[in-house]
Amino acid sequence: MKKKFILIILMISIFSICSSQNCTIIKYNGQIILKGDTVSGKKEGIWIETDSLGVIQNKSTYTNDKKHGLSISYINGKKYSKTNWCNNWPCDNDTLFTFYPDGSSLFVLFRDTIQGSGGFMLKHWNEKGKLKVIDGNGNFKGIPVNNSYWEGEYINGKRDGCWKFWNINRQLISIHNYSNGVQHGYFSWFKSNLENIKTTGALIRNDGYYEFGKLITTHFYEYNEEGILQKESIYDGGGNLIETKTY
Predict the structure, then answer these.
(1) Nearest by Cα to 110 from 87, 83, 79, 70
(2) Hey, which residues does 187 pair with through a beta bridge?
(3) How far apart are CA 100 and CA 144, in angstroms?
(4) Residue 168: is it exposed, middle or buried by C-beta count within 10 angstroms (0-12/13-18/19+)?
(5) Distance, CA of 144 to CA of 40 (rounded, Å)
(6) Are 156 and 178 in contact (CB under 8 A)?
């Protein structure tokens, strides 16, 4: 009953977003997936985005057709993160707050002035509510992006050393090495066990090497249905093919 009540309140809030005759509704297969006000054909104010089942995904503020102001994202209808946007880009010198499905804090990240730098990790709580990263230092293990799992160490707010990433099914996705927040050293991406591979264990899809954020080499691997390596292609950091090996 409680879940139904929350869903009703959520749907009321979604359908009451438009505040004027300039309301714009975008549908997919008869279901509203995007709704908000427009001024002179441009998005203005709060816009709500849902999936094809009507479950909310994003609630964003727009000014002159650009995302500008508070933006809240949701996973499976539950609030995942909130942050401010400036002219279609997450604001510099601002803070990103993220949450577990039960609403408790996951991590707090400060975005610095360098776009794409990843920012500075301030705090991180594990699923039991215990603080694991304090003032940028400590071990991280959580559900930060699209229900994927991350594990590694932060030093002075930046990733450092070996980091591992799993999908929602706890299958290993990749392993990366970092130094002061940038990739440095060897990395590996793995093929999912869900793929049509008649073998157990993770197969390396591609691997390679970074030097302080600069890609040096990448190796791509192709297997047969039994998981036996058939072909290896080697590329330089610019994506140019260096060598091909067959087995």
Answers:
(1) 83
(2) 208
(3) 9
(4) exposed
(5) 38
(6) no
- Give the pLDDT confidence of 6-58 residue by residue, as tens digits: 333 344 344 445 655 677 777 777 677 888 988 888 999 999 999 888 899 99
Over residues 143-193, the pLDDT tens digits come to: 666 667 889 999 999 999 999 988 877 788 899 999 999 999 999 998 765
**183: Cα within 13 Å, side-chain hemisphere:** 16
For the whole prediction, is pTM greater than 0.85? no
SS3 call for 168: coil
Q: Kindly report the CA angle at 144 between 218 and 194, in degrees rounded to 5?
A: 55
**Sole residue written with tokens 């297997």:** 223
Phi and psi at residue 102, to the nearest 5° = -85, 0
Cβ(35)–Cβ(46) below 8 Å = no
- The four Cα atoms 111, 165, 82, 97 give a dihedral, to 10 degrees, of -60
- Give residue 189's identity as a one-letter amino acid code: W
CB atoms within 10 A of CB 208: 19
Find the Cα–Cα–Cα–Cα dihedral 142, 144, 149, 151, rounded to 10°. Answer: -60
Secondary structure (3-state) at 101: coil
d(CA 191, CA 202): 6
Contact between 207 and 213 under an 8 Å Cβ cutoff? The reply is no
With b for 16 or more beta-carbon neighbours within 10 A and e for fewer, the 126-145 pattern comes to: eeeeeebbeebeeebebbbe
